[in-house]
Specification:
The complex is a heterodimer of chains A (270) and B (255).
Chain A (H helix, E strand, L loop, with lengths): L9 H29 L9 H13 L9 H33 L1 H14 L4 H12 L3 H26 L2 H9 L4 H38 L5 H8 L5 H29 L8
Chain B lengths: L3 E10 L2 E11 L4 E6 L5 H9 L6 E6 L12 E4 L11 H10 L9 H17 L15 H14 L4 E5 L7 H17 L3 E5 L3 H7 L2 E7 L12 E8 L21
Parallel strand pairs in B: 3-7, 3-8, 5-6, 6-7
Antiparallel strand pairs in B: 1-2, 1-4, 8-9
The chains are: A mainly alpha (270), B alpha/beta (255).
């Protein structure tokens, strides 16, 4: 039998899925053991048990000076920035996507402009954002916004343009105006696409968030990672990295669940 | 005056003629089947009737109104596919047919209940009442087309345009759809244009069958000339002409 036709049975599939995770963990443990055996004070690869202890300390013990548990404050601040940036980008994406996808005039005017904008590397604009918006919240939110909005607009515009011509004509024969076509035919059909696009954008959004926080901030997950880097506190960095991964996974899962719940009709073609 | 008057219609795409010198008069209540080879312009003709596209020359007058420049509720349509809205339940698809004409596409609460009841009555009539809450994706091809026809009729168009409406259906479903359409027409007289690939279907359903073809043909440049109506058959009485005795001949008298 050819390998392209062989399918793993359920238990084997679970085992195969777990394998890379286990392999990574094992490799880390071996490497960590080797280094700690040579030098018990090694900071580069802390033992998993050390990371667990650090994680527990970070999540439960307050800052010595202020008494705040910085871990949760970092998380809340970063999530707030992420939500604002991604939310505004989603709003812009759906608005301009609908305009470009439905109105020939808007397409003629904005299509090329958005395509050109999407080629500007957002990180190269970060200094300009800091100069224009200052070092506060606005510049960080703007970086996320600028980073993912062009992609969202282009994706939403092409999804809108993909709606079969027949549906748009049919709506018109039922008396629908341009606004009604946009609100009742196009918008509900691209909403699940927006959620899908947002899921894809979460990776870049985190990237821009951490980049902005690393450079100028006083709170946030990215800020903390880059701060403790100075002390080679790998246990803290790894705790934060794992936490960010968990958060990103939970967001992805929540968006997928939302899409399934709110748009059951779209499930077959997503 | 005829309900639909097509006068000296031409349509060219980028200098390539598709239709030329098309003339047609259709009376209210007639069922016109449109047939012809692939690429002969019969679908183009339907899009012109729909006012989705505009003629290069000539005009189409419906109900003595000025020629339309875009699709309107005057002309209902059912396509081969994608005719219903996949994001609305079966019932909402029919309610939408009433709601879309409002400024924001939604009926006020007071009117919505009545519209839902009318939708249920229509669903009862087209045999889809048991699927009212399902999404169109759960419907079979024949059910989707019945819904599309019901939806188009809810907006009460002057003419109904069918673009190969049964082309994607299996033969059995297609025959039951023929019966469904014939019953609908018996209940509500309507003027219908149907583009079809299937000659049998065209003669079975139509009162008239019009054929599009090219009258001139340049073998070195097949796209040099457009098509026009070359035949206009009387398709009543099962497509067999001369069944209906119009003159008093004193010889043949059907009982």
């Amino acid at each position: 039998m050819r390998w392209i036709n062989r399918k793993p049975a359920r238990p084997l599939a679970v085992l195969l899925a777990a394998l890379p995770f286990v392999a990574l963990l094992l490799a880390y443990m071996v490497a960590s053991d080797l280094r700690l055996a040579a030098n018990p004070a090694d900071k580069l690869l802390p033992a998993p048990s050390t990371i667990m202890e650090t994680a527990q300390r970070l999540m439960t013990e307050g800052d010595r000076r202020t008494g705040r548990i910085l871990f949760w404050h970092d998380t809340a601040k970063s999530l707030e920035r992420l939500a604002l940036g991604v939310g505004l980008a989603g709003l812009a994406g759906i608005t301009f996507g609908l305009l470009i996808g439905l109105l020939p005039h808007a397409r003629a005017m904005l299509g090329g402009f958005v395509a050109a904008l999407s080629l500007v590397p957002p990180l190269a604009l970060l200094p300009i954002l800091f100069i224009v918006f200052g070092l506060g919240e606005a510049s960080k939110i703007m970086l996320i916004f600028i980073g993912i909005t062009p992609f969202l607009i282009r994706d939403m515009a092409s999804r809108t343009a993909e709606i079969p011509r027949e549906q748009l004509v049919k709506a018109q024969t039922l008396g629908a105006s341009s606004l009604v076509v946009a609100l009742r035919v196009a918008l509900p059909q691209i909403m699940p696409r927006l959620i899908q696009a947002l899921r894809l954008s979460l990776g870049p959004a985190w990237l821009f968030l951490i980049a902005a926080e690393a450079i100028a901030s006083d709170l946030g997950l990215g800020y903390r990672i880059f701060l403790v880097r100075r002390y080679l506190a790998m246990d803290v960095i790894l705790t934060y990295v794992i936490w960010i991964t968990v958060l990103a996974y939970l967001m992805d899962w929540a968006l997928r669940a939302l899409s399934r719940r709110a748009y059951p009709w779209a499930e077959t073609n997503l | 005056m005829s309900l639909v008057q097509v006068r000296n219609l031409f349509k060219t795409y980028e200098g390539r003629p598709i239709l030329e010198r098309v003339n047609l008069d259709v009376e209210e209540g007639e069922f016109i089947s449109i047939v012809g080879a692939s690429g002969c312009g019969k679908s183009t003709f339907l899009r012109l009737l729909l006012a989705e596209e505009l003629p290069s020359r000539g005009e189409i007058i419906v109900d003595d109104a000025p020629p339309a420049v875009e699709p309107s509720p005057q002309r209902g349509v059912v396509f081969q596919r994608y005719s219903v809205f996949p994001h609305m339940s079966v019932r909402d698809n029919l309610v939408a047919a009433e709601a879309f004409a409002t400024p924001f596409g939604r009926l006020p609460r007071a009117k919505r209940a009545a519209a839902r009841e009318r939708a249920m009555a229509t669903l009862e009539r087209i045999g889809l009442a048991h699927m009212a809450d399902a999404f169109p994706a759960a419907l079979s091809g024949g059910m989707q087309q019945r819904l599309a026809i019901g939806q188009a009729l809810t907006a009460k168009p002057r003419i109904l345009l069918l673009d190969e409406p049964f082309g994607a259906l299996d033969p059995g479903t297609r025959i039951s759809m023929h019966e469904f359409l014939s019953e609908l027409r018996a209940e509500t007289p309507m003027t219908v244009f149907m583009v079809s690939h299937d000659l049998e279907e065209a003669f079975k359903l139509g009162d008239r069958v019009i054929v599009f073809d090219k009258t001139r043909w340049d073998p070195t440049d097949p796209t040099a000339f457009g098509a026009t109506i070359t035949y206009d058959f009387d398709a009543r009485d099962g497509g067999i002409p001369f069944q209906r005795i119009k003159e008093e001949t004193h010889v043949l008298r059907p009982h």
